[in-house]
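WARN no homologs supplied; continuing
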Amino acid sequence: FNEAYYDSNGLRNNGRIRIFYYNDSANNWIHLKDIKRTSSDASNEQLGRYSLNASGDLSKIIIGSYNLNYGTIRVYETDLYNKGNDQQINIEDELDNIDDVVVTEENTPITIETPSSLPETDFSKEIDFKQSSYIETQEITEGDPRSSCVFNKLGNIMVISNIIKNEVYVYNFSDSIGNWNQIGNSIKGYSDNFGKNVSINETGNKIIISKKNSTSFIYQLDTSTNKWNFVQNIFIKGAYKYYLPCQMNEDGSRIIISNPLYSYSNNNYSGKTQIYDLNSSTQKYEKVKEWVGSRSNYVGQGVSINSAGNIVAFISQKNHIEGGVSVF
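OK structure emitted
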C-alpha cells in the first residue's frame, strides 16, 4: 500500500510504498520492505498516489506518482532470487516518449519493432524477499499524474494509460533481452479521459477500458495483424458521468463492472454492480448478474474478481459514513 504524503530525508510528501507479508505462525502481518525515493527531485512526488499495482509474486511493482503535476510511472523489480538463480535485474532502457518506444544502446536511440506474437516467459523463480531489494528499472514520464498503470499476474504484461491524450498502451516484457515492447497499436478513445480504469487478462489479448461517460470498452488483440480490435461497449447510466470501475478475470471470460452513481429514482445514488460472461459462440459479453444498492449506498465504488472468476467483491458505503466490502 502507499503513503503518498509520507515525509523522509527532509523531503516533504515524497511518499513511500510499504510491503508486508503474512506470517502464519505469528498470525500477523510483518513489515518486509519500503520503497521510497530520496533524491532531491523526489520532493512532493507523492509516490503511488494515483496508481499502484504488482505482479502476482511481487517481483515487479508499478507505481504512478503525482510528481509536481507532470506525472511519472516507475517500475521496480527485485534484484535477488534464490534456488541458486541469483541475478541482478537492471533494465537501463528508458521510455523517453510514450508514443515511440525506444531503447538506448551507447546513447544511440534504436526503434523497437512491435512483436507479432507474445514470447514465452518463465517467471517460476522463487524470490528471497528478505535478502533482496527493489531497484527502479524503468521510468516513464506520461505528462499526466492521473494515468493508470496495471500489471498482469505474471508481471510480463504492462498497461499504461494517458487520460490527457485519451490513449492506452500495452507492453510485453521480453525475458530474453530485458525490454518492454509495445503490443499492438495504441488504443485511442479520443475523449472523456479514456483509460481512467483499465484491466487486462493474463495472456494480454483482451482488455477493458473505461472513460468518463459511464461506458467501458472491450478490445481484443488480433495476433495476425497485431492490432487491437473493438469488441463491444458496456454502458451503465448514472446520475452523472463517471469512470466505471472494472476488472477482468485471468482468462478474460468474466468481467465485473459498476457505476456507484447509478440511481433508480431521484438521484439516490444507490449504485449498481454487474457481472458479464463471455459467450463463446458470439464472442460477446452478456450480463448474468447485478446488484443494486439502496439509497446512498454507492454500490461498486471499487470492484475485484479473482483469477478463476468465481469470487467477486465490491465496495459500498452508506450516507457517506458507513461502508463495507461485499464478497460473493
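Residues 11 and 263 are 44 Å apart (CA to CA).
OK
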